[in-house]
Design goal:
- Belongs to the ParA family. MinD subfamily.
- One of its GO terms (molecular function) is ATP hydrolysis activity.
- Residues 71-289 form the CobQ/CobB/MinD/ParA nucleotide binding domain.
- Keywords: ATP-binding, Nucleotide-binding.
- By secondary structure, the chain is an alpha/beta fold.
- The chain has two domains: 69-311, 3-Layer(aba) Sandwich (Rossmann fold), CATH 3.40.50; 330-368, no CATH class.
- It has helices spanning 82-95, 112-116, 126-130, 136-139, 167-178, 198-204, 218-233, 248-252, 259-266, 279-286, 298-311, 337-344, and strands at 69-74, 100-104, 141-142, 149-153, 187-191, 209-214, 238-246, 270-275, 355-360, 363-368.
- The strands form two sheets. It has an eight-stranded mixed sheet, with helices on both faces. Strands 9-10 form a two-stranded antiparallel ribbon.
- Strand 9 and strand 10 (363-368) form a beta hairpin.
- The longest helix has 16 residues, at 218-233.
- The chain is globular, with a radius of gyration of 35 Å.
Length: 369
Amino acid sequence: MLSLHRLPGVPTAKQPLFPSTSTFTHPPRRPTCLFPQSKTLPKPPKFHKSPTALLQWNRKPQLSGETPRVVVVTSGKGGVGKTTTTANIGLSLARLDFSVVAIDADVGLRNLDLLLGLENRVNYTALEVLNGDCRLDQALVRDKRWSNFELLCISKPRSKLPLGFGGKALIWLVDALKSRTEGCPDFILIDCPAGIDAGFITAITPANEAILITTPDITALRDADRVTGLLECDGIRDIKMIVNRVRTDMIKGEDMMSVLDVQEMLGLPLLGAIPEDSEVIRSTNRGYPLVLNKPPTLAGLAFEQAAWRLVEQDTMQAVMVEEEPKRGFFSFFGWSIANLLSCVGGSGRGARRKLCTVQFWGTKAEARD
């Protein structure tokens, strides 16, 4: 290709009209395709999110009431989860940066140290403090995971309660905890023994609040109603309720009372509802409370929410959610499977004798349940 060159004697020369390919580069062309493919963006990685609570975790709960708040955890009936609730709520309060002292008031049958994993560190008890064999700080067992949580056992296993130990002795222990040099604790949780005998009267004497633990069965509800009357007679008016071991599948099948039914029967403000969780047995055997599990379980989150409400003296309200009946194959004929089985089998709870007429593909069959 021809190109212009500078002539001798001429100071400047014009640029070439048609520059060569060495001085000019064409912009790159996009490849043409008859059927262009759609752009596939890389998918973001999937993160398995653990269940989180619905409370405002971006702030610390505001402590209500005068300190220390002496709270007794009771039920009347045994095996409903008093010790499990005391351990999990106590550590939840400690994780919220509150100082907590848990007192196991069950004489001879203490289990709170097992649930916390502190059974090998209990050298002195409250009885030895009262007898003058040790100091109060020696009987308090500090948890290594959370230093603001301490445990005090009334007596050693397989020991009998002396005649001189009663409500006044427990009041003296609570007053000693209030006036110790390390500072007054924010919460004093008392794990009450089962029953309504002398151990129950001793445990509720120094308390000004009560957490009533119950399960959705009639035996626990009868005992809970009886204990509520005894607490009110003792002057404890601030009583809140925790419904433990709730199973939603049995509630939907109408085989268990709902939390709303329990609240209507007892007439107490609801502090929390704890679902049935198999992890409770594993955590009990390991001496590791549920609230310390990672990732947290549903029962552990429920205990944390109950502790949050306890700090702010708040309650929750149980509601009833009505679900629309699922439309199946027999709904085309105006019948559901449950109605068909109830008419044919007649094994439903509370079923009455009645005459049903079932139309099925044009045929008419009469069934008496």
